[in-house]
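Just curious: can you write whichever protein you like plus the matching structure tokens?

***
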Amino acid sequence: MVALFKNDSVPYRPLVAVPRSLSAKLLSVLAVLSVLYVAHSFLPSHLKPSFSSLSFSSGRVRGTCTPRDWASGQWVPSAPPTNRTDFNHSSDAYEFLGLQGCASSREVFWHLGADNDRLWDRFPAVASWRWQPPSTCEVRDLSPELLLRDLVEHGGWLLVGDSVTENHFFSLSCLLAPHVRATPDYIANPYFDRGWPQHLYLDPSSPLVSKLSFPPGFDIETTPLVTFRRVDLLLEPAALEALYRSLHPDSPLVAENASLFSDEAVWNLAPSEYVKLFTAPTPRANYATMIVSTGGHWTTTLFAGLKDPELPKDGILNVIEFFGEAMEAWARQVQALLDAADNEERNRRRQVLARAYLPGHEDCHDYREPTKDYKPGQWGWYNWNQIGDFNREFEAVLESHKYPDIHFLPIDRPALLRPDAHAAGDCLHIMTGAGVLEGWTQYIWHYVTVELPGRVR
């Protein structure tokens, strides 16, 4: 409220006289608004009304490229990272993908798509494409040095999801090399379980160290910049069992006291565990953004209690319906945990991004370039042809104003158009260096530094 009052030796004379009755009314309105503002500040997020129509300009940079706008672009040719064409050994992948190295030591050549010599003919063409968003999108080029600075000074990323999210973590370990180090060391000890946390830390020998401004309590040795936790379903099976029984007490599964799950292996943590890690103070953590993704393990094979051979795709619609219910429960729990943490640190708000999941491509290894359009698989492997339905359920949940700190990112289209960019061993996972995973990093970095700061909570 600039210039409502003047504080100097000259008596204040309004340019236009205001009747006293109107002044009283104005003061009454201001008093009511003040009470509403204070009440709003202390309400839980799901009870807070939206005052977006009353918002004033904050001077912050407003959004320039929404997730869906960014994903509406196209793959365009770019110069290959090398002029070489003689790919002779798996280690050639670094040069052919334009990488200085990778900090992570977990299944390196699988992540680089270089563990099958029958597919070496993909190089260097597989790394000769870049994602071009529409001209209306203003997204800066991906700079490893600037990204690293933001991870240190403004908060790191906690990646929560399945092995496709692990693909993203590995890509980050290459993008930020040689300025980061990774744990654990899978060469010295290859027997770490898939559920073991993986971290990227700032390397003390990096020349960037002297140029960074470290937050209070930040410790180069113990404060991670990026962490990956393997969490396939975002909720633990026991919690999902209880949720299903509470929502569907009259279902045959409950009547028969049958299990919702088969004995298929999955890795999971409760939201209370990974949100506790997400909101931990320095030096243990300094995260500002948690990026989650799920969908690939929500099948009738794992959710055997929802399988129905008499329905299309063995009853996959039963799984999709319960997925929507589960993500509603997940969002409610995560937002409450964030609110509790933010009440303790009133000057900081952490954000959660739910990245759209992606299906695989049948016969992916027959492709050598991007496609113009995405076509569902002919045979309907796994739940791949229904991944779009899972994404729509998750997005519908997060459209609610009840979850102001959880945002859905529909940025799956670039991956849908890259059947040529899968790992050499299967047609679901994405290889590092082809531009897909790096595109996720570029847009997420843009989103948390440009799009989100422009929003009024």
